[in-house]
Write a structure and sequence with these properties.
The structure holds 2 protein chains of 2 kinds. Chain A is of the alpha/beta class. Chain A contains 6 helices and 4 strands; from the N terminus they run αβαβαβαβαα. Classes of the chains: A alpha/beta, B alpha+beta. Chain A binds chain B through residues 108, 111-112, 114, 117, 123-124, 126, 131-138, 140-141, 144, 147-148, 151-152, 154-155, 158, and chain B through 23-25, 50-53, 55, 71, 73, 75, 78, 80, 98-104.
């Protein structure tokens, strides 16, 4: 892109300057490097591994860096049946993740309890965490998870990073 | 809307072949001819906005042999509804829906 207006003081970068807003730039950075926290709890976790492997290759969408430390991740992918025994740990790890963070409920169990209509199983992780994307399937195909990630990227793209931060800090 | 209200709304509008209640889970056996209209009605009018899962049953030796099972779910109310139909083999392919849903 060639800009005709003179923006830079340095003649070497003149004509190579792209103007944008901080919000748009931040959203662009964030959506293209979503670092997932792989919360694999059951068979959906196996599909999640397939998404990370070579055939489906989630690195095409900038999300290959699975972080097992919540401090370094910004998207929790809850993949599998959330039992009450595990729910506390899931919530704790979610709380340890720094803002901004997002959550994908992968599969029928994480979305609603799935086929486990049982006293031992949480009926959907959205009872504990705010879920951004629900993915259906038992388990979902890797393509479905990738589509879910693309939808999340679209959502991140529309967020107003700076404005929201200001609102959180000064409200 | 309670599950009972949703069911009566369906039964008022469509002919349901059979209704099965088992431990608080409702299953409707639906005729293939009206199935897609009924499913659309559930999504657009009754708030079953999430198709959790599609599976199938093989009734070997019976005709029609295969049965499709659709798990509908309302993300707002946390209600489940299971629809089952036995399509005839000649009914052909159907358009698929998107599998991911985004709350924006």
């Amino acid at each position: 892109m060639q800009a005709q207006t003179e923006y830079g003081y340095n003649s070497k970068i003149e004509g190579d300057v792209v103007l944008t807003t901080v919000d748009a730039a931040l959203a662009w950075f964030r959506k293209n490097s979503v670092w997932p926290m792989p919360m694999g709890l059951a068979c959906c976790g196996i599909e999640l591994m397939a998404v990370g492997a070579s055939r489906f290759d989630i690195s095409r969408f900038g999300s290959e860096v699975m972080r097992f430390s919540p401090r370094q991740s910004d998207c929790m992918i809850v993949a599998g049946t959330v039992t009450y025994k595990m729910a506390g740990s899931v919530k704790r790890i979610w709380d340890q993740m720094p803002e901004p963070k997002w959550c994908i409920a992968m599969g029928a169990c994480a979305s609603s309890g799935g086929m486990y209509r049982s006293y031992a199983v949480l009926q959907g992780i959205d009872q504990l965490l705010p879920v951004d994307v629900y993915i259906s399937g038992c388990p979902p195909r890797p393509e479905a998870l990738i589509e879910g990630l693309l939808k999340l990227q679209k959502k991140i793209d529309t967020e107003h990073a700076l404005a929201d931060q200001k609102r959180a800090l000064f409200s | 809307m309670t599950a009972a209200q949703a069911l009566s709304a369906i039964e008022a509008k469509f002919a349901v072949a059979k209704k099965i209640e088992f431990r608080g889970e409702t299953t409707l056996m639906v005729e293939s001819a009206t199935f897609w209209e009924l499913a659309k009605f559930c999504r657009e009018n009754l708030g079953f906005d999430y198709l959790l899962d599609i599976s199938s049953v093989d009734h070997f030796g019976e005709e029609p042999r295969f049965e499709m099972v659709y798990e509908l779910y309302s993300t707002e109310r946390g209600q489940h509804l299971r629809l089952r139909r036995r399509p005839s083999p000649m009914s052909g392919p159907r358009p698929t829906g998107t599998s991911a849903r985004c709350l924006t």
